[in-house]
Design brief:
Blueprint (H helix, E strand, L loop, with lengths): L15 E4 L23 H18 L3 E3 L7 H11 L8 E6 L1 E3 L11 E3 L3 H15 L3 E9 L9 H12 L3 E6 L4 H9 L2 E2 L2 E2 L3 E5 L8 H9 L3 E5 L18 H9 L3 H10 L6 E4 L4 H8 L8 H7 L6 H9 L5
Parallel strand pairs: 1-2, 1-12, 2-3, 3-6, 6-7, 7-10, 10-11, 11-12
Antiparallel strand pairs: 4-5, 8-9
Helix pairs in contact: 1-9, 5-6, 7-8
């Protein structure tokens, strides 16, 4: 099944998607996340909460939703919401990922919340689980968080199984992570099976702090691949509660523009000509509405220059990300 590209002649909101990472499990490593669920975080409370955010996103025009096996009940929440609204594959684009499993036991204070596993057994098990959870909604299946030093892209058995899934009609993608994410993306995009690319979508981190993947994402877009930007707010660091969004150049430029730091940071991501889709990580309806203000902005060249001072070396950025608490 082919995923429709979000052409830039379509409504701008179609270039935004909603990720389920902060909605499908009780804890996540976004700054201030613990304050987003005053009603509680039991499975039923979180399901109702997630459905309210999904309703608001869909009502605003968002049609792409991104999940993963490690996002707790994210896939199940998404499928139940779509079924309740009578939405099917022609109405939504749903992507999911394999390679991490949720082990948090629905506890905020769990010692571990997810475990990485890029084995063939994990691929087969998690693909079956995603198909059971999402049914016909699943149209893009991605390897979750490939790193430059990880072995998965050289695992012939895994690549054989992915080729089988692709030849069966499932579109494949890869998400990349870590200070070597550009190298990981380039390696993945160079893999061909049966005379054609194995991966026709790539999801990489790009934000005002971490831009190391920009060149390879631009090349992927130019070659016709679907390019998805993840973590455009740097796990909340660029939002109003973050260490960058609450003070400094981003906060000052946002005030001058009469907007919020998160909207300005998202507008910067949307301004990348190669960014087909930018994923929001909103955990509340209010956050989503604030994020959507990005669609009203056209970042000025002089503001882009001022914000360029925020860029961090990749090693520093990813080391800081690793210290963010799950709340």
């Amino acid at each position: 099944m082919e995923i429709p590209q979000p052409p830039r002649t379509a409504p701008a909101v179609r270039r935004l998607g909603l990720g389920m990472a902060a909605l499908g499990r009780p804890a996540y490593h976004t700054i201030g996340h613990g304050a987003d669920f005053p009603e509680g975080r039991s499975p039923e409370q979180l399901r109702r909460h997630a459905h309210a955010v999904l309703d608001a996103a869909h009502d605003a025009g968002i049609r792409h939703f991104d999940a993963a096996r490690s996002y707790g009940a994210g896939e199940a929440f998404l499928r139940a919401w779509a079924d309740a609204r009578g939405l099917g594959p022609g109405d939504l684009t749903v992507s999911s990922k394999w390679g991490y499993r949720y082990v948090g036991g629905w506890r905020v204070d769990a010692e571990k919340h997810e475990v990485k596993d890029h084995s063939l057994e994990a691929l087969r098990r998690q693909h079956a689980e995603s198909v059971e959870a999402l049914g016909p909604l699943l149209s893009l299946y991605q390897i979750h968080s490939v790193t430059a030093d990880g072995p998965v892209l050289g695992d012939g058995a895994v690549l054989d199984e992915l080729t089988r899934l692709r030849d069966g009609g499932l579109r494949l993608g890869v998400t990349v992570s870590g200070p070597g994410q550009a190298e990981a993306a380039a390696r993945a995009l160079g893999i061909e099976r049966g005379g054609r690319p194995l991966f026709t979508a790539v999801q990489g981190t790009w934000n005002l702090l971490e831009r190391s993947c920009e060149a390879v994402l631009g090349e992927a877009h130019a070659s016709g691949r679907l390019v998805i930007v993840k973590e455009p707010l740097a796990n909340g660091r660029l939002g109003p509660r973050g260490d960058v969004g609450s003070d400094g150049p981003l906060a000052r430029v946002a005030r001058e523009a009469g907007t919020t730091p998160d909207a300005l940071a998202l507008a910067a991501a949307l301004a990348r000509p190669w960014a087909d889709l930018v994923l929001l990580g909103a955990a509340t309806v209010d956050q989503l509405r604030s994020n959507l203000r990005a669609l009203e902005l056209q970042p000025r060249a002089e503001d882009q220059e001022r914000l360029a001072a925020l860029v961090e070396p990749p090693a520093r950025y990813w080391a800081r990300r690793a210290t963010l608490a799950w709340t």
